[in-house]
Amino acid sequence: MMRLDIVSVMPRYFTSPLENGIIRIAREKQAADVFIHNLHDYGLGKYKQVDDNPFGGGAGMILMVEPVFACIEKLKAERDYDDVIYFAPDGERLTQSIANEYSLKKNLLLLCGHYKGIDERIRERLVTREISIGDYVLSGGELAALVFIDAVVRLMPNVLGDSESALLDSFQDGKLDSAHYTRPAEFRGMKVPDVLLSGNHKKIAEWREQNAMERTKQRRPDLLDG
Fold it and tell me: What does pTM read for this prediction?
């Protein structure tokens, strides 16, 4: 079973997503489990402070080094982690290959930033990999952590009802998935391609491969560079 520990200043943010969808299924099938750690439990002083103004001035608040070190060092003392991942706009872009890589891991520690960011010393000393889910800024890393978890656990054995489905997803072989249709075969004059109704599995596979390539050329030609 994979264990995912999440460090966040907003632990309740995860309640609904962890109890629904593919993450719930992964937990029920004991393929993965998720544990949320409230950074405020490690905060300083009477009010459990976890953030402060940045040195040098400027807008925004920064997650302080002391609470994060205290939390992560406690967790690392209890088990070994394959990676301590921090979600940041300037991190490595999350791809399907990265999701494939992490679906084989055992223990992952996910750090969710908040406010303006985190003290750089946390990144230098504790974080082993930094991941971004896109070229935009969120109010915190919680959504990014959920995107990452969803992308990873759905690849684990027996989590999807049809395990072959994940292998045919977009990006798995460097291109987008083909178009898909279901009943009825005709709707308001729009017909399903005849080949998909033919029962000829070889022809169907060829059509899907050609359609996937055409969609990739049209929508994401960058995937075919080189």
Answer: 0.90
